[in-house]
User: Fold these one by one.
Assistant:
Number 1:
Amino acid sequence: MTLRAAFILICLAVLNIAAPAGAAGPYEVSLQAFRTDAPATPVLGVVTLTPAPEWHAYGNVQGPSGFPTTVTGQADGADLDALYPPAEPGPDPIDPSLTVELYNGPTPFFLPMAKAPAKLTVRLNALLCSATTCQPLREDLELAVTDPAGLPRAEDQQWWPLYLLSTPGAAESLPETAVETPADAETPKPAVSFSPRYFAPGLEVHTLSKAAGLAFLAGLILNFMPCVLPVITLKLRSFIPAASGMPMQQRQAFRAHNLFFALGMMLYFLILAGIIAATGIAWGQIFQQPSAIITLTAVVFALSLSLFGVYDLPLIDLKGKSAGVKHHPRLESFTTGILATVLATPCSGPFLGGVLAWALIQPPKIIALVLSCIGLGMASPYLAMALMPGLYRFLPRPGAWTAHLERLLGFLLAGTCVYLFGLLPTSAYLDVLILLWAIAVAAWVWGKLTDLNQSMLRRWSIRSSCVALVTAVVFLLFRPTVHQDPWQNFEMPRFQSLLGQENLILDFTADWCPNCKFLEKTVLKPENSARIARDFKATLLRVDLTRHDPELMALLESMGSKSIPILAIFPKERPESPLVLRDLFTSGQLDEALEAELRP
């Protein structure tokens, strides 16, 4: 287990000290009967669920998390329709970013009856969650009403206003199943046809000429987008003449700078057009992936360090070069144009939505043409300046002020890093911070420990070590998992057939159980689980309790628990007496248990 995982495990263990465990359950459930003044429903059964403090049940309607609370009942064998009080919207106890319907505190559920039953049976299914853990609940209750006239009057109870607001429950949703459609079957037509209207109909695209025109305009506007901070940095640098000397030399340098800058932009869009046409990926889809955001964050961070003078970028015309640094004006302008466009792509969506919605369903040639128009529009200001190099006379001259401008733009790029960092999942924060630290170290070594006074061998040996450092950190932090998950889905007939024949390990888990997911990401991660299956010759079965299953819940209760996570080890020599690890445990504790139970 890594140091990071160990730290998180300790924190969660501390948080769970007060969490209820075992069969007791953090709740109370009661069933009572009341009489009413309504002739149609003279008797009212009331099931009251009282969660422990800081625990909550989910509403009856399935939301984005958990699973719904349901009440079913029978009066003398006849089914009853339950009524549910309104739930309160609020943050999910497990994931506060989600808004869900919750039952907080004592909550009554109602079963109206046409007559007093000799036997009333009720089943309550719910999921109770606190801020640190969840526990499924299933309670079977029974009540006999012998004297209806002696029942308490429902209208006098505190919950009566809730009863008046209660409504029938939603039909319990069933998991979707795959159904094969015959090849010759007709595609079902929608029940309703729509005639959509558009808020800005003038921007809707239906022809190639309109798509090309809007694409050119959108590319042009990208140059002036204030939200594209990295692109602004590069554009401002492009307006500063790239050479000193006679006017003719300045004019030629200015023309070459803008021409190659524009060429880099247009080449990028042509390559992008080919990729989209060949793969069918959506525009900007790559920038929705954490790996792409991490890469972009690392690139922008490296650029910001160069603007603070930590080191000089090779092949990127981002700032004035230090004395003695080798300069390749045309190649630097070309690569900087490509980089500018890469950084602009994530911000292009608001201007290209209608254009790309039409273009990306066209043949590859049309896709390439439209994207080329975007590139041409973005490159057009620089092509214009290349055609009219005399404009350089109206541009500011390099001077001491450019150093202050570089520092200011460095801060803007650092702010862009913060923005990109916020787009990442929280689980990636630590790894990305380690990567940025490695980039900072490598950039400092590159800039401070190498210069042209050294031999080429020494200089590039040091620089190669900088690249190797960053590459090694990327590999160690973000290397892909090559281990196949050895856990198999639990099936009761197979479990019964293997019991006593093989060593079995059962992991009781659920999607709503954060501690279960933590164990799966640390102690039970694929590579460690594969080692356990191999070294101890065990079959690994995962018991999924995301949806209530009476058979699986009975198996969990046979382990002496109603809460999860639970890991049960069944030695083939003693299958009737499994060893159970409850709640959170470490890799060391699991190995110790496996050694004791499964080693001959």
Note: The radius of gyration is 33 Å.
Number 2:
Amino acid sequence: MKRHILKASGALRHRLRGRHVAWSAAAGVVLAIGYNAAIPLLVSTTDVRATMERMLDGWSGGKSTISGKPEIRFWPEPEVTLPSVKIVSRGPEPRPLAQIDRITASFSLLSALRGESALDDITLVEPTITIERRADGTINWQKPHWLTAPEAATQDDGSPFGDITIENGRLSISDALSGDSGIDLSGIAGTVKWPSYTERLSAQFSLALGGQQVAWAFVCDRPLALFARRSTPIKTSFTSVPLTLSFEGIGNLSLTPFASGHLQFSASSLPTLVAWYRGSADMALPPAGVSIDAKVTTGGKTLKLDELQLTVGGAAATGVLDVTLPGGGSPHIGGTLAFDRIDLNGLPAYMPARPVRSDRLWKMAESYINGWRTDLRISAQDVLAGPLHLEDLATGVMIDGGRALLDIGDSTYAGGRLTGRAQLSTKSLDNGGRLQLTLKDADFAAVFADFGLKGPMPVGNGILNLDVASARPLWETTTGDLSGHLTYSLRNGSLSDFDVHAFTDLVRKGDFFSLSQASDASFDFQTADLEASFADRTARLDRARFVSPSGTISVTGIVPYRNGSLAFAGALEDASASDGQPLRFFVGGSWPNAVVTPLAALVGPN
């Protein structure tokens, strides 16, 4: 009997359990149907549209209109979609501010049940933001209510702004005053997080710019103070493959913006950076990078870089730079830069053979030369420029009214002191320039070796002056385009590879001979003075006079550039000669394998 009772009891429990599950499932279905049927009655699409329009009006300061029909869904979470949104400026002549394909936002059911239409996690899908300045100087955007008074920066306004996400946005900027074609940026994506007007504002955006993906970030703990044109701490960065830039410090957005803080800038490749800026890679540049690390301060129309650390390629410098942008005068840049090493030898191979005047970089360079004033003091421990290896260089760069000067105040070369000046033509960049150099007390044997000059060369303690100019552009100038003069004065020196006694004997014999036949000794002299001039693709030796106890040698002549030949006439005054008549000769051929012809061989016997 007991067994039958237990069996009946189990069957009853199983039947009751099945009915409980069925009733629970039915109740769930009824609740779901009631939820989906009742919630739309509590959440009005009209209220949602009005709420979103008020939010957009508050953000932008304009007038917004949502033309499309709002859609509300509740799974997997409550969300509203508002299509076709337009924002225009207020006033008698509304101007377009933004056009948004659609807006999505989440909302709280509990808030809806309490009659509150609060919207969160707002996403703007395919918005187009328009910023334009008309010819009269007015801008289409107007200040929203929270920026109308400076005290807004300190008011206790805890009203929410919220988080905004932008998907596939577009920014269009036009300026009728500048005359430029404008800026059009597309593919913008990112977020703005601003819980309330009194809390931290942070923004992160990315977009494709010039074929490169770039990212911009911004953080401000006191955004209202910033928007009210007051100084406040900010952090911002710009990141891309061509360049990265960051700033952390104090800044404001007044009519004369101010910033003071730490600035970092770097570009791993100048060719990549220039190609990105210009939109093409048709200009060859050395594969060098550039970086800047400095304490930056702006004030009014000035910019100062203190504690500057500059790196260009393999050259590193420290110093200070000041930039002034006066309203009625020429912009000015000045300061000091101290380099450890400057290597210019890699630049010529990357210089364009014939720059195009319409090129953007050319226009920038010409605008800088003609419009900016520059006064820079540059020093370097080592400078490599062609065959020159300068040490302890101190130079100044000055640009004013189209006049560009490079003054070498002091430097050491080949054990001597090198000074000079390089000047660009005041007409334009493609009209050549002038170079003046003075070298004192150098090891002239090392100088001639650096420049590959062979044969009998006068060396000693003295001074070399060079003054040459060219009417052709620097990148097109050859030796044959130069004009100018050279002076070279020595004391107590010697003429290498020149045996004056063998030379005298050979001239007296009256036969042709090679200059190499008199190269087994050196000619010591007390003084040597040489003067040469350059013009019309010809170098002219105007005077060369060597004075020694054993006699005096004088030479004049020309060296045409077209074939490298030479034609010199000379005289040797032998102090030991009894008749006191100088020995005259002619030097022809090419240097250093010249052929000497005594005058007697030219005129023949009497």
Note: Residues 2-42 form the longest helix (41 residues).
Number 3:
Amino acid sequence: MSEASTDTSRSWAPAIRSRRQALMQRLGMGAATAMIFSPMFGWKFSAFWVTGYFLIQVLEMLVFAPITSGQSARMGPARTIAGWVLLFSNAAAFGSLSIPLWLTGGPMGGVCAAILCASGAIYGTINSPGSRAVLAVTITPHFLYMFATPFWMSWYGASPSFLTAVCVAYAVFGTYCLSTWKSMDRAAQAEQAARLDADRRRAEAESAMAGRAAFLAAVGHDLRTPISAIMTGAAELERGAVDGAARSQAALITDAGIMMKALLDDLLDHAKLGAGRMTVEVVDFNLRSLIAQTVMFWQGEARARGLTLRVEGASTVPAAVRGDPMRLRQVLNNLISNAMKFTTEGSVTLNLKVWIEEPANYAVLIEVADTGPGMTAQQLDRLFTPFDQTEDGVSARHGGTGLGLSISRDLAQLMGGRLTARSLPGQGAAFTVSLMLPQGDAGAIAPRTLSDDSRGDIVRSLAPRIAGSRTAREVVDLPATEPVLRQAPQAEPEPVDAAGEADAERPLRVLVVDDHDINRRAVELILAPLGCDICTAADGLVALARCEATVFDVIFMDVRMPELDGRETTRRLRAGGGINADVPVIAVTADTSPDDIAACMAAGMTYFVSKPLTPAALLGALSHVLSGEADETAPAEAETAVA
């Protein structure tokens, strides 16, 4: 009996929750009914009836509280029996007004009673989804009152034909209520099945997207290793080339490596956006400097193509705003690169418009316009379609994957803005980024650090650290192609050997930790000309053992490694209190999301440089941690470029 009753109460759950949602409707209907019929029954009777009716609603709410609160779909035997009684009493109390209506109103009161009972039966039919038991209990009292109608009519002298007609009418009405409930039940079941199927499909899609994103992340991480070696080796070949042909061949390899890296970055960004894993941060940054640095970065490319790169409206650009400077720079780089790609002569112009929007926001419009061939309406329709290889598609005619504009549009939307395009054949094209950026705190803007857009002599601060006897070479002209993300550096500890003796003239001691031999060799190749004393380790455990025996000046630490990853290795190194507990640790990894960077910094890493490595990026990171301060130079030319 107990098990049967709890199973019954569980089957009630949808209907009981539906009735709970309609509680206020029942209360309002009861109050209105009492008020309407009070002239016939008197105020005392109406007040007595509505009080009893409200009391039943309260008791029903208390009895079914475990179900309506979502705590459980079952009730014990006592609550189940009480629930049956209250559901029946609820309907019986509402329909009970039909008796005084017949007694005091005669046949006219009987008409009102019929309407009252019919409305109660319809209400019970609608509010009993998925439960025949609740349906039966809540409509039975109303039909009992209705089936008493022939007796009342006979009491008042109605002919047998009228009595028969009423019985048939009520039977038809009862059939209608049952068929209506079945139709609603089938619809509800179909809706539930569709919802479950949609949830299942969504879960499958999310799982597939997550799997694809994880696969691409793993492939991207592995691809960055050979790309790093290609770019590093090509840079060394170009440096040591003895003739122009050899330099051209090395430059060709470098360009191919850069192209591979750009393609890989676009593919990974596209996958993250598709999986909903791309995020934007909100920090204070200098918008004027960002635009100036971006323009300076592309000036050389513009001159090489015979184009003019212009900026208009820079006087409206504020300095301190809040947003994601890295993503905004990525969008601007994509748009300027796209404009130069399709412009053979003329100019590329950045039109800037900024105005204050209340309460404390800047409305920012950045238009990148070119004097290229323009586009047709059909090309504009497909402009933001990734991998568009149709005959008239941009990718098919000019190469590339077509991901840059698609990614830029999605990034603009992530930042709360829009990217739009307009063009006509023969009249160039214009892309407009519209953003709403809050006003920033100028005092909170971090000092400028070494970056690929403004780095001049990336190893100037290395000079005091590299003894004159070392075979240091000049590297000021190395290409800066790799973005570096970092936090404020830690002060460098005074190098002390195992015996505790300071030796400022010894070679720079570097530990390179990476599970891929090709990555270790690439770092060695970059650092060898600086005369560094380089030690390597294939995993975190070996690295910790090396750190127990030798003092290092800096550690390059891969993040993804078997056995013991770079973050845990760094945590153990910091917590161990050994001779290298305070040594600067530079994270070297392909995982460059803000969460990954934050995890590296939380583990105790000092700096962050992403794969694939380039000499400029690695030496810039080394300069940063060894100098003990960020590069504070902010060339006046950068500001002049947009002033």
Note: Residues 120 and 142 are 6 Å apart (CA to CA).
Number 4:
Amino acid sequence: MQPSCCPLFRSGPHTLSTFKPTSHEPVCLPLLGLQTEITAMHSTGLYWIHADSRATAMRLGLALIAAQSAAAQMLLIDNDALGRKIVEHLPAASGPARLDLWQLDAGKTSTIARWLVRDLDRILQQRPDLIVLSLNMTGPHVSDPAELATSLASLAGWLQARGCLMLVISHGQAAGLETRLFQMGHRVHGFAMLADRGNIYLYKLSYWCNRSGVFSQLEYALDWQSAETRFTLACGQPPQLPSSSTDQDQVLAMSPVMEGEPAPSSNWHLFEAFDALADQAMRAYSATLLLSVQQTDDIIPLARWLFQLRLSRGSHIKVVVREMATCLRYADEHLLLSAGTNLIIPFGASFGRVQTMIESVQGQLWPASPYRQVEELLEQYQPPSAAGLVSEAGFMLQLQKLRLGSPSQRLNHVLLRLQPKAGIDLETAIRQFTVKRRGDMICTSGDQAYLFLYACRANGIERALQNLFRLSWHDLFDRPESLDLTYFLEHGFSSAPEGRMPGHPGRKATNLPLTASTADNRPLPLRPRPMTTDSRGAL
């Protein structure tokens, strides 16, 4: 960050600047969790936010500048040195690479609009993406905040003519400010107030106009995240916008999901490219999105996009994901559901069944996510980095990273204690273990083996054991015992007899009734096996 500081505005020869336009996306307020309709601004014009204190104004300005990209062109103007303080607290490697910092001569505050027009026309050679004007409304040279607001509102015509966007962040005295600005709504595109209420910040939007329409009389509770330098919606609850019209009957679908079937009605809109559907989804309110997943590599990018969709569009949109090939595991399904999916349709369902399942989610509201960042969500569903045969210490270390205490963790994991059959050496039995996926680990302690199956349902244990051992596990081990994972992490390994956990004589491990033949110790059913003969025809 290299602030370029011009100490004072000074009057000078008036020369009209021809600004060089810059290509930039619409600027949004840094209020994570609020939809873009109420945070986006027009590319030109005047917006105003009044803070209840200098500290609140500083945090808003800090969040706004930190949220801009390195390529953004910004100009920060103040009348009480708040701009310099904002720059000093700006985190490294955040915000624009260059920020022009100007200070307004306090003696000219009463005629601010005239001096701003004169000096901006004289100095600026390139149109900035955003001009931020920080104003102390209780300064000695501000006799009437309402009159000052009127003076600044006269800037609107100049900003429109020059293609510039200005956001005024004021603090201090605000008597009559809201009423005066509301009367000049044709000149000021938006006005809001931000107030510190102790544990939260109250954001009251009086009115806000942009390309999505006009919104008024909205109120939200915000949290200040100092580590991320931003405001976020309190409690993670997506806000709901008042809407006079709804798109709840509309279905936005990827063409591959249809499998050659025609659109059932005119309410169905098909898209060949995901980018086209994503653009339309970001303007939807309560439509149904029908998406596809065809391979494992699609899962993480889709989860990231769904997370951002929910932050921007709230909980009324219905998201249905259709599995086009067998690629979703138990953990993958939970990841997509936690990221924003209402329903997952498994591979093999007919298109008629797909239509029925889409009808079943109509009217649903997606529950609020406990995660504030997508990386936090993805990390929650990452399996342990180890796999296969590990040491006792490594086994315990990997299990301790599972975040079992997290209230949002809904995955089931399985921990089994395996006792080799009589006459079978433990090392020999372990050699039959094959690694199938990350997170499935086995270790030995004494004369027993401990097997951890990541993201495994209880009814999937039998199949998992069949896949993990080259020989039938029935021939290698006695009936496995399912151990309580939390208790195991507290007390460690044990070779206690009779399935009892160490140090807790009343707590037993669970014997698993995996199949009818193993549950009652009846002989296993006979299975055919391939045989060959030698050149003489002998077996």
Note: The chain is about 25% helix and 20% strand.
